[in-house]
Fold:
Amino acid sequence: MLVHEIEELRKIRKEWCGEKVGLVPTMGALHQGHLSLIKKAKEMCDRVVVSVFVNPIQFGPAEDYGKYPRTLEKDMELCNSAGVDLVFAPSPEVMYGKGQKLSNDTLTYVCPPFFYVNKLCGKSRVGHFDGVCTVVLKLFNIVQPDFGFFGEKDAQQAVIIKKMVKDLNVPVEIIECPIVREEGGLALSSRNKYLSEEGKKEALVLSKILNNIKACYNKGITDIDALKETAYGFLSKEHELEYLEILDRDTLDEKDKADDNSRAFIACRVEGVRLIDNICLGGK
Amino acid sequence: MLVHEIEELRKIRKEWCGEKVGLVPTMGALHQGHLSLIKKAKEMCDRVVVSVFVNPIQFGPAEDYGKYPRTLEKDMELCNSAGVDLVFAPSPEVMYGKGQKLSNDTLTYVCPPFFYVNKLCGKSRVGHFDGVCTVVLKLFNIVQPDFGFFGEKDAQQAVIIKKMVKDLNVPVEIIECPIVREEGGLALSSRNKYLSEEGKKEALVLSKILNNIKACYNKGITDIDALKETAYGFLSKEHELEYLEILDRDTLDEKDKADDNSRAFIACRVEGVRLIDNICLGGK
Structure:
């Protein structure tokens, strides 16, 4: 079922009173990564809602809001095959109000803590996580799910959303699901569509660097600079590295030494496309 | 019933499934103004929750957080007599977490729009409405009421909270209740306790100025500067005027001329105590 309006969704939601409801918030252009979230939601919930909304307030002025892939018809097919109960695909006008200017002069924002935001993707994408938290809280308030499902690929986002839920006592449990990868190791992303065949090969550098860091850690290297330096052998002029960091996976704090609670995060441009990936150093 | 812990409250709230729940958020030191909110809530709801929480993050460093009156025992008596079902009185540690530093470096905040905040009380109380919105959203998420009751005395607060509810799709309806006054006209406020008998007399200047502005408006004066100038005859050296503004009552926008949708707002210090009041120019 496809729903575009908030009031219609609220009406249906009321009929589900007493059932466990899961929300998978997406920007559409669904791929196997999203489907793994939907599958997990189906396992845990009586009802599964997928939201499809390319959220204008989480894109910077120089970013790809306009050209971000919009494939609602195909998304609906995937959701129907996956047994999704309801796809919520509102317009920006429905989400933010007609004629509403989208700035913090005129709109209430949810602002995650500076210490969580001022690193990794937040450093280059100023205001991005304010936009993410604001829209996720709006979706939580509209759908009122018991569980919200998020992918570990956007690991900083998942940490920040869990922090928001804790800080604001949001009555939603956040479930994180592992990264889904292509056979070669490339983490699935809607932005992979921007890459040529050649670019996709070059993009393997992200997972190669992360796997190598983990292998080195498993061999006993815990010095963070030493682990980071292992990356440079993989990089060529095709790769524009934005960041490579090893941080605490729960707090995003810097550490003296890598440990099992550390996560390595990378962002790198290939053919001008900004790609991100990460890996936990602990575990298998 | 007095509850201090969030989990205990959530458990009781679940038992009220299907009932209409009203929340009256307060900082305690309850007076007839609060009781009028409780009365309205009793009329509209099956269950009434009063929260009593002096919220540290809405006080500036030079403000009266430490000395703000705390009278929980008396508040409980009043709530019991008024038929309140539950008083929620958490500690700061319960609300914000043990050892949690209270700053936007480390805590998720709800930030109302700059255009709503950068005037009236928000101009001198920097960060105040971020703190108010954050705690109100937390209380809404904890209590999950159908209705939230707020007094018109804090008119800017009520406008900002209604804006937050709209912008963030919070599933709570905001009910505003009229100002309750002493016989002489002084608007009830927990901060009136700081005043001497003499100060209370001097404090009548706020309602006198507002009533006079309304009388002048009713006589046909709509020029805003002219209306504001009528105040100065009332002021003496006992009164430290912080602001006197006539703005749109819904948007807090400035107007060319006063009209029935205008509200006059005043803040004035008497004996060092900051008092506020307001009046709608439309209506009786």
User: Anything to note?
Assistant: The longest strand of chain B covers residues 239-248. Chain B has two domains: 2-177, 190-280.
